[in-house]
Amino acid sequence: MRLLYTPNPEYIHKVLVVAQEAGVLDRIEFERQVPFAEDTSIQHHNPLGKVPAMILDNGEPLYGGLVICEYLDSLSTTGRRVFPQDDSRWLALRQMVLGDGMFDATTNMRVESWRGPEAWHADYLSRERAKIMRCLETMDRDAAGFSSEDFHIGHICFAGGLSYLDLRNPVRDVALEPGDADFVWQTRWPRLAAWYESILTRPSIANRLA
Ligand SMILES: N[C@@H](CCC(=O)N[C@@H](CS)C(=O)NCC(=O)O)C(=O)O
Fold first, then answer.
1. Residue nearest atom 14 of ligand 1, based on CA coordinates
2. Would you say the CB of residue 70 lies under 6 angstroms from ligand 1?
3. DSSP strand pairing (29-32 vs 53-55)
4. Rounded CA gap, 80 and 57, in Å?
5. CA distance linking residue 43 with residue 202, whole number of Å
6. pLDDT band per the 50, 70, 90 thresholds, residue 192
7. Distance CA 30, CA 50 (A)
8. pLDDT tens, position by position, 123-179
9. pTM score, two decimals?
10. Superfamily of domain covering 2-74
11. Ligand 1 atom closest to 14 (CA)
12. End-to-end C-alpha distance for the chain, whole angstroms
């Protein structure tokens, strides 16, 4: 199978973490694609023009990062599943959407900020900023219930979203509200930050590939 993605070891790619947890990393051929580059061909496989996208061994495309994650998990050779199949599934999936949704809001804020301040849609930026803040608040509350044995797709998406926010930090760069120019999420949500620090040592998370 072939994975179209944008390599960047500076943040945590959820699909790569799941592939490692499932023991299927060596079955994947990697293809670098940059969605906003002129020469990208992602749209031939994914009409949405987004990475990650995957071409399965039978030639069928699969897209949506979370769908690719669930597919890779279904191939697991390790006896471990990061998509729980029991009643804990719904909390894990809700947390998956929360972490991934924060990633999306961070991307939206960053892409809008490319226009330059004179062309910004301040109301749009403000809406995306508020989503990031509410997600962090909710993730911090959720982190209070995490135990060191737990590891599922929700944790992977929290780690992916937080690492991306660390890398891009559009809240700081756009600086809409007082205090945003120094925005560091770890200062405001130390409990979430402590959990994040602990998860960074897990081999599938520590090994950033790319
Ligand atoms: N949460 C989504 C994120 C996908 C996503 O937004 N990827 C960005 C990475 S920059 C992209 O390809 N954007 C291109 C576009 O929106 O046209 C997923 O996992 O599928």
1. 50
2. no
3. unpaired
4. 23
5. 34
6. very high
7. 15
8. 999 999 999 999 999 999 999 999 988 999 999 999 999 999 999 999 999 999 999
9. 0.97
10. Glutaredoxin (3.40.30.10)
11. 19
12. 17
104 CB less than 6 Å from ligand 1?
yes
Atom 2 (ligand 1): residue with closest C-alpha?
Answer: 65
Return the C-alpha torsion angle 4, 9, 14, 19, nearest 10.
70
Q: Taking a C-beta distance cutoff of 8 angstroms, is the pair 170, 15 a contact?
A: no
- Please tell me if the CB atom of residue 97 comes closer than 6 angstroms to any atom of ligand 1: no
C-alpha 6 – ligand 1 centre gap (Å): 10
Q: How confident is the model at residue 185 (pLDDT cuts 50, 70, 90)?
A: very high
Question: Topology of domain 89-202, per CATH?
Answer: Glutathione S-transferase Yfyf (Class Pi); Chain A, domain 2 (1.20.1050)
Place of tokens 């959990």: 195
**Strand runs (DSSP E) across 60-175, as ranges?**
61-63
Query: Structural domain boundaries of the chain?
Result: 2-74, 89-202
CA of 147 to the centre of ligand 1 (A): 30
Which atom of ligand 1 approaches the CA of 42 most closely? Answer: 12
Q: Which of 12, 15, 50 has most ligand 1 atoms within 8 Å of its beta carbon, as the pocket-test mutant?
A: 50
Q: Give which of 133, 108, 109, 125 is closest to 176, Cα–Cα.
A: 125
Closest ligand 1 atom, CA of 63?
20
Q: Which residue, chain included where needed, has tokens 């994040």? A: 196
